[in-house]
Specification:
135 residues, alpha+beta, Thrombin, subunit H, 36% strand
């Protein structure tokens, strides 16, 4: 009986130590919280296209959520798009500048920076965009 009371006390103290969600919501503002996709677990179930960058040995895989970057030595990142959640039509590395471009089936074009892992530009065309080329 003693052990159960001790366990009950420890659980109660742990629950009381958790901050109140309402108090946290009042103290945090939009500047403090930046919701974004930081990781994706599992296989690439929605992969539609790929591009390879031979200098840095990176593979870009176009997925519904954006571009998945896979490389040697444990390099893995998801460059998420907020505007075009349609499947990717093509992905293309921009050589020498550390950027990757994604064209989606809804004619959206996103440009991502590999270093900061952010979307630099995003646009949607009214005409059909079938492919992209970078030089």
């Amino acid at each position: 009986m003693f052990k159960l009371t001790k366990l009950h006390k420890a659980v109660t103290e742990a629950l009381n130590a958790v901050p109140n969600v309402d108090d946290l919501a009042k103290s945090l503002g939009a500047v403090d919280v930046r919701p974004r996709v930081v990781s994706e677990h599992g296989g690439l179930h929605s992969a539609t296209c790929i591009a390879y960058e031979p200098v840095q040995r990176l593979l870009a895989v176009g997925v519904d959520a954006g571009v998945k970057i896979i490389g040697g030595d444990g390099v893995e990142a998801l460059l998420a798009t907020r505007h075009h959640v349609e499947p990717a039509r093509c992905v293309e590395f921009m050589p020498g500048v550390g950027r990757v471009m994604r064209v989606s089936v809804d004619n959206g074009i996103d440009v991502f920076d590999l270093h900061s892992q952010t979307c630099l530009a995003s646009t949607r065309w009214t005409i059909d965009v079938t492919c992209a080329c970078s030089m």
